[in-house]
Amino acid sequence: MVKPSGKTKRDAKTGILDAADEIFVRRGIDGARMQEIADHAGVNKALLHYYFRSKADLARAVWLRIASSFVPGIFQMMASDLPLDDKIDRFVEAYHAKLMRHPYLLAYVVNEAARHPEIVGDFLSAERRRAARRMIRKLRAQIADRTKAKRVAPLSAEQFLVTLAASCLFPFAARPMIASLLGLGPKAVDAFMEQRRKDLPAFLKRAIR
Amino acid sequence: MVKPSGKTKRDAKTGILDAADEIFVRRGIDGARMQEIADHAGVNKALLHYYFRSKADLARAVWLRIASSFVPGIFQMMASDLPLDDKIDRFVEAYHAKLMRHPYLLAYVVNEAARHPEIVGDFLSAERRRAARRMIRKLRAQIADRTKAKRVAPLSAEQFLVTLAASCLFPFAARPMIASLLGLGPKAVDAFMEQRRKDLPAFLKRAIR
DNA sequence: GTCTATACTCTGATAGAC
DNA sequence: GTCTATCAGAGTATAGAC
């Protein structure tokens, strides 16, 4: 408002973040080149170091933005009073929608989390840790209700959550391997994923029925 | 036999492969340094280029050795006449045992498969593709038998296989995230995984019951 | 805030002696 | 086959003009 350069500044910074996002996700942090990011953003390489001191800082900023964009929403939904079956539907739907559009995202996240564990911690603020605990507690109650009513073997809420996430996410991370293994071309893999989006919720509900 | 250097040669080459395996898996291909691999193998950097022309070639050799060491065995077991439930037990058991000892392996495989899809193709020879098809065909028959007998909704063998793999493998790839999310230390995560090894087969069997 | 030019470091790769 | 020495290129990062 006061500074006329305010808008421009944010645009340049955001532009760099957008470009870095794409290049990091495509090549990994180690494989990415600052020059390529700069080119992709249409700015000079020096500007990257002006806004973000180093490559590591830039990578951290990109990571934080990615994680912040959809993890908190999922936490909240999973901690809500929604019936368990609806949560499964929404979880599957949300991640399929997200990852269909960003196929390399998950391989990136998985890899960098393994390689640079500290940035995972950076993302999980105290507030988010509390949100995670709320989610687990709520899920535990819902699963307990169900197993009590139907006399099924007890199931840990944590294990269920991990299995749910695994079933949705892993196929996107393993997409190239699935394609090779099943002998599918790019379009056939898309169809396979689309089918999965439809079938998976029923499969998971059956397991906790 | 004829050459007295035969044994030494193989040892040096194997030593380099062992070292490269460890460093690549720990740092990723892009993050790994030829110097570090050479140091770890106790040989000179130049020797790496003598046996493997370039870093890319070395990475390919490492990948082929890793994949060859346990994928074909799994294919064969899954294509056998073993009952479906036993296959689930063995699959879960085999991968948990393997990955407990090589925690970074999966993040590496997933990442490099996404980044360098061509090396996945290198691994899947025509013979292995046939083995994969045999496995799928057998699983499809077994699942069909079961759903016919118990009147359950039909389930694609491919989808089931992916879900099975996802449930077993993803937790290892996502280990750092799971730890952060659930607030577990290294020992607690190990316990979580151990619990998972026990509970997962029952969960999966219930879904196709 | 944004650019040009450049310093400095590191890495993969090769040449050549033994 | 294995080593020492070295190079060319690429990379991150900074200095300084505008």
Structural summary, described in words:
2 copies of one chain form a homodimer. Chain A is mainly alpha-helical. Chain A has 2 domains: about 1-50, Homeodomain-like (Arc Repressor Mutant, subunit A, Orthogonal Bundle); about 65-205, Tetracycline Repressor, domain 2. In chain A, about 85% of the residues lie in helices and about 0% in strands. The first copy, chain A, has 11 helices and no strands. The first copy, chain A, has helices at about 5-30, 35-40, 45-50, 55-80, 85-100, 105-115, 115-125, 125-150, 155-175, 175-180, 185-205. In chain A, helix 4 (about 55-80) packs parallel to helix 8. The longest helix of chain A is centred in the N-terminal third of the chain and has 26 residues, at about 5-30. Mean pLDDT of chain A is about 90; it is low at about 1-5. At the A-B interface, helix 1, helix 6, helix 7, helix 8 and helix 9 of A face helix 1, helix 6, helix 7, helix 8 and helix 9 of B. Chain B binds a DNA duplex (18 and 18 nucleotides) through helix 1 and helix 3.
Features:
2 domains; Arc Repressor Mutant, subunit A; mainly alpha; DNA-binding; homodimer
**What assembly state would you assign to the polypeptide chains in this entry?**
homodimer
Q: Largest interface here, residues on each chain?
A: A-B, 57 and 57 residues
Global Rg of chain A:
20 Å
* Domain module tally of chain A: 2
Q: Runs of chain A with pLDDT <50, length 5+?
A: 1-6
* Structural class label of chain A: mainly alpha
Principal-axis shape of chain A: globular
The average pLDDT score of chain A comes to 90
Number of strands of chain A: 0
